[in-house]
Amino acid sequence: MAETLGSLCDKLTIVKLKLWHCDDAQRRASLAAQAGELAAEIDEFVADARAGRVPRARLTFPANKVYRRDAHEVAVAEGELGTLVGRLAHVNCELWHEQEKVYAFTALPVADKDRVVHRLAVLNLERNACIEAIDRRFVAQLAPLGGPA
Description:
Layout: H1 5-21, H2 25-50, H3 81-103, H4 110-142
Helix pairs in contact: 1-2, 1-3, 1-4, 3-4
């Protein structure tokens, strides 16, 4: 997948979640280095996009998820970039905690298993919606600067 602002923000929020949950000093150091590299990559991507050095086709990369839209109620991702990145971080945090339940899936009561699987599906769709919304909003912000519209 091509990197977009949304995908880079997604990676950074996940690395930050790992860092938050990690107790091992060596892994924490590695994760902190990854977070720094991703933050620098985001800054470079934004600067390059603003300067017109990123081709328009690289600014967005739709997930093109194929699913029954009537089977899942997915929250709409909207707002300014900061709000969208915050929403993405929130969704990834929820996804992290829901995924934790899967690691002990055999211990879950049968009645809870369907709910967990459904919630994972919805959260993944919301995550992709946030990533795509970040990309669209970024492109919209570039237009007044003479960048891609």
